């Protein structure tokens, strides 16, 4: 465009392209000192006739460059630039409308940007189709746009396609397609699926755990349950324990206390301390089995001896209150101390109370401090009464 002087002269003579280039020179500090206010001024002058200028001005209003942030003004300019064919402006307008809770308008702008080939917009429009956000739900259309986006390198779209094909959410379940898209995204889930297909119980369970923790819908939960069951049926103890929880809480399947007890027992007999504790709870509550406090205490003791802190605390309470056993203060104290050593804040607090009652203030403060550090309210209040700085001791 020549020198800044000639560019300015052209801009002042109503050359809209010159206005745009002059604004860009100020925005970048090219041949002039960087000046956002001047950049915005010239972009706004050019905006009615120059789509790029309208878009750049919108971004400045959005980000508060050269002016106070003003989303309303930004949206107006994004819409202007969108009407002149700027795909990024359509995407930005869609994002603002979505944030404002106007999914129909958002979907329209995302579609416009998607049709222009913008990968991020293709993802957003695909997700709108998948969820029926602002438009009629259409899983086939969702796959089309997510595939376009993923094929342009959008990792989030590739991960979404992998999840859909793995769980059969909106598409026919196809683990080969799932592997393909997870691999495209560079996700370790691709190898996990392949290894689970070859019969690796550990990988099946790991994959089940990932799906369960990140589940977004019932299909995800159902697939997590199925993989967990497959791993459990192959004798993998951690999967059996997890399957018991799924049956107990109805996660990915219907609630079934009898099945929960069955799988907790399987895992417990194979050494799972957590399953032992869960099984004890089932006996205590009479869920899936006749209520049996003696059995509850038996499994709690096994769990505690295997290092389950919650079970040790439960035993402390049982012997203190005579729940399923004869009250026994010394045994109660022993189990609370065991739980305290296993880092149960409830046990630490109870042990501290007993040490205080026995006159051993050093041990009382030691365990009360540990409980307080973990956020036990009673311990914090007790320490405050004794010494405001006690929490930092021991």
Counted beta strands? 0
**Assembly annotation:** single chain
Structural class: mainly alpha
Count of runs of 4 or more consecutive helical residues? 23
Description of the molecule:
This protein has 394 residues and is an all-alpha fold. It has a domain of 102 residues: Tetratricopeptide repeat domain (Serine Threonine Protein Phosphatase 5, Tetratricopeptide repeat, Alpha Horseshoe). The longest helix is centred in the middle third of the chain and has 16 residues. The protein is elongated and about 100 Å long. The protein starts with a helix and ends in an 8-residue tail after the last helix. The relative contact order is 0.03. InterPro entries: Sel1-like (IPR006597), Sel1_AlgK (IPR050767), TPR-like_helical_dom_sf (IPR011990). It comes from Methanomassiliicoccus intestinalis (strain Issoire-Mx1).
Detail the topology: elements first, then pairings.
Blueprint: H1 4-12, H2 16-28, H3 36-46, H4 51-63, H5 71-83, H6 87-99, H7 103-115, H8 119-131, H9 139-151, H10 155-167, H11 175-184, H12 189-197, H13 201-213, H14 218-233, H15 237-249, H16 257-269, H17 273-285, H18 293-305, H19 309-321, H20 329-341, H21 345-357, H22 361-373, H23 377-386
Pfam families: Sel1 (PF08238)
Protein name: Sel1 domain-containing protein
Notable traits:
394 residues; mainly alpha; Serine Threonine Protein Phosphatase 5, Tetratricopeptide repeat; 23 helices; 73% helix; TPR-like_helical_dom_sf
In short:
This protein is 73% helix and 0% strand. It is built from 23 helices and no strands.
């Amino acid at each position: 465009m020549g020198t800044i002087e000639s560019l300015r002269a052209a801009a002042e003579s109503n050359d809209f392209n010159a206005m745009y280039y002059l604004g860009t020179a100020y925005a970048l500090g090219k041949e002039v000192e960087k000046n956002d206010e001047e950049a915005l001024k010239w972009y706004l002058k050019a905006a009615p006739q120059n789509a790029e200028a309208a878009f750049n001005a919108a971004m400045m209003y959005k980000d508060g460059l050269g002016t106070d942030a003003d989303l309303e003004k930004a949206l107006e300019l994004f819409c202007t630039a969108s009407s002149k064919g700027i795909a990024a402006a359509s995407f930005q307008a869609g994002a603002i409308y979505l944030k404002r809770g106007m999914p129909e308008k958002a979907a329209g702008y995302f579609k416009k940007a998607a049709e222009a080939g913008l990968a991020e917009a293709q993802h957003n429009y695909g997700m709108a189709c998948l969820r029926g956000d602002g438009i009629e739900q259409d899983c086939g259309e969702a796959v089309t746009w997510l595939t376009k986006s993923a094929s342009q390198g959008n990792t989030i779209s590739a991960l979404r396609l992998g999840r859909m094909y793995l769980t059969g959410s909106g598409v026919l379940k196809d683990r080969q397609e799932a592997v393909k898209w997870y691999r495209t995204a560079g996700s370790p889930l691709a190898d996990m699926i392949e290894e689970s297909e070859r019969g690796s119980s550990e990988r099946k369970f790991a994959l089940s755990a990932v799906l369960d923790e990140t589940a977004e819908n019932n299909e995800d939960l159902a697939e997590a349950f199925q993989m967990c069951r497959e791993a459990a049926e192959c004798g993998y103890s951690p999967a059996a324990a997890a399957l018991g929880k799924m049956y107990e809480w109805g996660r990915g399947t219907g609630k079934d206390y009898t099945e929960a007890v069955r799988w907790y027992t399987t895992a417990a007999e194979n050494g799972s301390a957590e399953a032992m504790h869960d099984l004890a709870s089932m006996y205590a509550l009479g869920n899936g089995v006749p209520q049996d406090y003696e059995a509850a205490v038996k499994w709690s003791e096994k769990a505690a001896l295997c290092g389950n802190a919650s079970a040790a605390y439960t035993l402390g309470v049982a012997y203190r209150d005579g729940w399923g056993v004869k009250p026994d203060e010394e045994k109660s104290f022993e189990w609370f101390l065991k739980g305290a050593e296993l880092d149960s804040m409830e046990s630490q607090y109870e042990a501290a109370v007993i040490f205080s009652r026995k006159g051993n203030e050093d041990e009382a403060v030691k365990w009360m401090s540990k409980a307080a550090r973990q956020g036990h309210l009673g311990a914090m209040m007790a320490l405050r009464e004794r010494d405001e700085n006690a929490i930092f001791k021991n």
